[in-house]
Please model this.
Amino acid sequence: MRLAFVVQRYGKDVNGGAELHCRLMAEHLARRSEVDAVTVFTSCAFDYRSWANHYAPGVEQLNGVRVERFAVPFRRFPPLHDALGLLTTRGPRLSRLEPAWVVAQGPYLPSLLDRLSQVAGDYEAFVFFTYLYYPTVYGMERVKQRAILFPTAHDEPQITQRIYRRVFSTPRALVYNTPEEREFVRRLFDVDSLPDAIVGCGIDLPGPAAPNARPEVSAPPYLLSVGRLSAAKGAGDLCAEFVKFKQEHAGLSFQGLDGRSYRGSELRLLLAGRRAGARIPERDDIQVLGFVSDSEKRALFDAAELVVAPSRFESLSLVVLEAWAHGKSVLVNGGCAVTRGLAQRGEGGDAYDAASPFSTTLAGLLEDPELRSRQGSQGRRYVEAEFAWPRVEQRMLDILERVVQGGST
Model:
């Protein structure tokens, strides 16, 4: 097979979300004997908030994958984007403005669409990552007989726009991350007749503990949260919950990963990720690490008491899978059906919500080191069974073969 991927941004330093998922999938499939070549069609942008051109346009080879980049002719103008978003998702919902909202959201890439039309017959399949952006909304139409959509869908206002009914009816097949994502999409759209598969994303299991690159930061005991520090990802809410825990459980006694006894007052919260608008309080026990390298991230996972995933909007959580790969228990936001479902199936953590508040649930996990250890071990076994790369690659190849050969459900 010759495969093409279409995604809004792509690069070694684009670390997170659907873009990282796309890169990992493209790179792993490029190594398979069943695949002759992989090309990615994408923008020159690095920052999704502005779509400012960062990479050079043209063709490059990146980790065995051919990448074609197209310049974005204008940056995102937030006031226009936000105003159109309100007009198309609230109140009378002016659906005639939805195409304008998609353009305003960007990245606006008519040159990429023209290129897809030119190469429509050169690839057996075109895999589009995320339903939301301009390249998917208008790109799938150019290659719809060979289009596969990896929607990475979750419950957000934009997905209720009428324009996405057409988007979800266009591809030859749909690929999901979790059963919860598939159920959510099926509730919203008439897609039951389309071939589909739950594929997810693979995880490389770590070897021996990573060397501690920042010992002054990762001294125990601490909770770890990894991801973009935005309000949408729950970073600000997590900080508020952590402060409440410190107020209620400062005198809590618990055994740390290193075998020593600690008080709740000694616990810290480490936030690894780029700032993106979340309100983070200035406190000695909350530390923003910013972007961290892969080796630093591995060391942080290794020394964490447990890992917190505070986002309510996920189609999959690579952070949860990475935590389990390191044998860590996870604490997830119970308002996210996806991460709650992952925690239940993997038996690798707990969820917090109104009925089981963060402060109380965290205290219970800290007071029971054997439970944390057991959850971490169960999570790792689940990752080994379901998310090791060979298994994920084969699931993806199976649905690709069905589409290429004209298979159906």
